[in-house]
Amino acid sequence: MISAYILLQVYSEFDKAIWNTLTELPNVVEAAWIYGEFDTLLKVEADSLDKLDEFIFDELRKVEGIKSTKTLLVAKMK
Predict the structure, then answer these.
(1) pLDDT per position as a tens digit, 17-55
(2) How far apart are CA 69 and CA 62, in angstroms?
């Protein structure tokens, strides 16, 4: 299992719609609104790096209103 944290910057006029969409995506394990440079933090899981790529490119990046993303792959968890 591959885990990653994804930070998102979103356009404010889309924030509620994006939140509703993101929390329904099957790979999203946790979601949080945050303050600072980024607006949303997602924890996602996938069966492989290929599946994570599919999620990011085929699902996440197609959500209207996302300005930018930063993906952080988890190396080790306790």
Answers:
(1) 999 999 999 999 999 999 999 999 999 999 999 999 999
(2) 12
